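Figure S7 source data.
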Amino acid sequence: MVSCLLGHDFEGSFAMEPEIKEDFIAEAPSHEHRKPEYKIGIKPVEEGIVIDHIATGEPIEKIWNNIEAVRKILKLNVRSSHGVYHSFKGPEVYKGIISLPDIISFGEKDLKKLAAIAPGCTLNLIRDSRVAKKYRLSMPPRIYGFEEISCKNENCVSNPGKNEGVVTEFRRKSGSTFICRYCEKEHNFRDIWDI
Ligand SMILES: [Zn+2]
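Tokens for the predicted zinc ion complex:
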């Protein structure tokens, strides 16, 4: 008796189609009988890199933010796909994945950077559709020497505004808390990054 709930005008699956008057929204033919080309999920990579387990267990919004931070800081502006997926760790546990079929090598500095942006993630090098190498990245004890980090204490000698030319450096205090080497201001590791 669904039709009763929707009223007298119910004639099919879409009882209440919106009447759109704005000219920047135009309905296009949907070719119902054609097989859609959209796919859910990530196509398996034959050669390339897959960054998996990004921000596993965090709220979905934080996982997306972390994916964005990885892409921006590592300048991954290449053909790729990414998304938030279920983790095998539980029904309400999610993780981020970035799939990069065009990248075939990853330098040590980038690995260190990735560990400091998305600790807990894995980096998989794929060759002939198999995982040829897998790196599990944990929170590093120090984060230093990257252009994209800065102490958020305006009065710190390492603050970019001070122009003292010292190398920004953070040391891990506990968990995800780092302290600036110079002024000892505490930062959550995500706040170290300027992006
Ligand atoms: Zn500082």
